Amino acid sequence: MASGQVLYARFEDVYVLKFVGSIGFTDDWTFPLSKSARLFIDRLLGQDDYENIVVDLTECDGMDSTNLGLLAEVGRLSMDRFNRKASILVPEGGRMMRNLKVTGFDALFTILDVDTPIRGDLEPLREVSDSELSVARMLLEAHQTLSNMNESNKLMFKNVIEALEADVARLESEQGGSGTGNSKA
User: Which domains can be identified in the chain, with CATH numbers?
Assistant: First the structure.
């Protein structure tokens, strides 16, 4: 999958998270875009000075399951914090719309059929590298979030989660369980 870009902006009391291009695994095991999105979500968790989150997928060509899991965390954050769904903007009939429907994103998001992307002063998330153990934990958590959305996802990602759990256990064992995921960037 070719590399994409993750952008963000704040418009008054609304955060916008925009995914452009193909978002997913690259040749770099560190998943720098995924880690950047993870840190952005963590930052949102620690803030209470906004009222809504909008995700723009109008220019997203595709997204791997790790990033879908991170996106699901945005939806869960909105439900937990505001007791309402965040919004996703996505063109009808494309691959992204199909992926969102198949994985049950309508439970966490209001999915809006929009062809026009959000424009404005959007800034790219800084790519962040991390330890192999920290990345493995992020991958596991993202897939667990995606799996917990519905029974179909539980079946779909069962083997992936088992493999990731084994990978995390192996890495923890190799590092004596002390891998805290200190950033290299």
Answer: 5-128 (3.30.750.24)
